[in-house]
Amino acid sequence: MRLLKLEANGEFSFTNNISNPTTRYAILSHTWGEDNEEVTFEDLKNSSGKMKKGYKKLQFCGQQAARDTLEYFWVDTCCIDKSSSAELQEAINSMFRWYKNAEFYAKDWSLLGDKKNDAGYIADATGINIAILENGDLLSDVSVAQRMSWAAKRKCTRLEDVAYSLMGLFGISMPMLYGEGNKAFCRLQEEIIKSSNDLTIFAWNPDPAGVDKYCSILAPCPAVFSESGGIKKFNRAFSHPEFTLNNKGLRMTTSLWKCLVNQMGVTTIRYFLRLGGDPLEPTGAFLIMVGPGYFFRDGHMPFSTASKSMAAGMRTTEIYIAIHPPTLTESIDLTSFSQISFVVPSNRRYWAPTVAIPEELWDDSNGLFFATANHIIQVLKLQLHIPNTNVTLSVVVLYDHRDKPGASNIFNPEPGKRYDRLTRYLFRPRHANERFRIRDLLYEFPEVEDLTDHFEVIVSKERYTIKAIMQLGVVKEVSPTMPVYSLTFEVSKEQNESLAKGLSLPTRK
After folding, report:
1. Could you read off the pLDDT of 79-108 as tens digits, one per residue?
2. Which end of the chain is more exposed for a tag (fewer CB within 10 A), N or C?
3. Whose CA is closest to 371, among 381, 382, 360?
4. Model-level pTM?
5. Residues 300-321: what's their mean pLDDT?
6. What pLDDT, on the 0 to 100 scale, is given for residue 239?
7. Could you give phi then psi for residue 145, rounded to 5 degrees?
8. Alpha-carbon distance 492 to 500, whole Å?
9. Three-state DSSP class for 87?
10. In 3D, which of 284, 312, 309, 310 has the Cα closest to residue 298?
């Protein structure tokens, strides 16, 4: 590295690059003024710059270094040849280590104190825990979100330096590409993810004044971590999922929670990604399913805590979360993004889905199955109320989407019924990637061949027919214009007296 020396005649001279680790020197960390008022490397090479305001800072630093019995000193404005990307890279990568033991001076160069003796004041101003200021070895125990919160109010002359100045704090290195703008902070997060499985890197708040329906899982800048200072990473006993970034988004294998949330007076289901804190009441982010195992982060929902006792857990499976979701103020047209098998319109007075297989293809928020290219059977179990009675029974739907509108074969899974063995097979504990194919089911359970779109049941000595009806039409929650198949049910008594039809359904609430 290149150091400065204040000569006896008051002039400054550069040393040759010093690599001796025992060489002692001072470092000036300061608030930058206007670019044209700071002394540069070229100024000192050309013996110019004495009329600039920043020249006084060099004089003070040299004089203070001498009082501290230090012959050399270093100042970032003029000791780096910024025309050399390698030199600039080395300096920025080293600054975090250089500034660990700092003294603080006021504008009039009077000594304010140092980090050790004034840790309380620094903690109040920055949010950094006193224990961390006193013992830097504890930094690795601090969550990514907490460290980001320390930089939430940081301002830099160059936009890219917001990211580059944090490399030392997270112990990473990356090429500096001035001119890339906000991409620098995205790259910083990508590098952190490569070396850490701390999920709190995603524990930040979307802009409360923003209008976008969706946002990236990656933060746009440190400022959005301003309220994340209290978020701790999960302890080591918690199972930390592996996650990586690729061209599809953030990939991880985890178990999401399903929570009821209220948005503008409307209660809806959101998927909850646990990020840190207490495993029984964790902090997390809310997601919206837009495709098979594919999610956008909800741009209108800040991070929050959720209780395990108030949430329904999904099976552990592989999911993707978008890094570059579309910029929309309204919900996406799901048919433009994914193929839909069928929708079960909300009609909780008569029926309510309870179990869906494969779970990663079922969107609980919109009550629909996404289609898959593979010829698999989609299984849906519902609770269905018999109108004008106190009876609720279970219905299982086996949907084969190879043909449109697809075959919706249904049966009553109650114990002791004909399809009891099939029921136990379908709803047994399964491997994460296990699928049901029609040929396999027919081989193991020949009775599947006899299934149709209806079955009969005796209730209070009355015979009822339960029939699945698949119809094509627009469901505005799914698409404002594109028709999709909707699965509804008709319940009728013997002699074909209709009691309830799912042909005219209320708007989803």
Report:
1. 888 888 888 888 887 777 777 767 788 878
2. C
3. 360
4. 0.86
5. 86
6. 65
7. -60, -40
8. 7
9. helix
10. 284
Give φ, ψ of 481 to 5 degrees. -130, -35
Cβ contact 441:407 at 8 Å: no
What number of other Cβ atoms are within 10 A of residue 3's Cβ? 22
d(CA 39, CA 51): 9
Query: pLDDT-based confidence at 114, cuts 50/70/90?
Result: confident
DSSP 16: P
- Cis before 279 (ω within 30): no
Give the residue-averaged pLDDT of 460-480: 92
Query: How long, in residues, is the chain?
Result: 509
Angle, CA 273 vertex, CA 268 and CA 275 arms, to 5°: 140
Rounded-to-10 torsion of CA 212, 217, 221, 227: 90
Q: Is 441 helix (H, G, I), strand (E, B) or coil?
A: helix
**pLDDT, tens only, 416-447:** 778 999 999 999 887 766 788 888 888 999 99
> Which helix H or strand E contains 205, and what residues bound it?
none
What DSSP string describes 178-204? TT-TTHHHHHHHHHHHHH---GGGG--
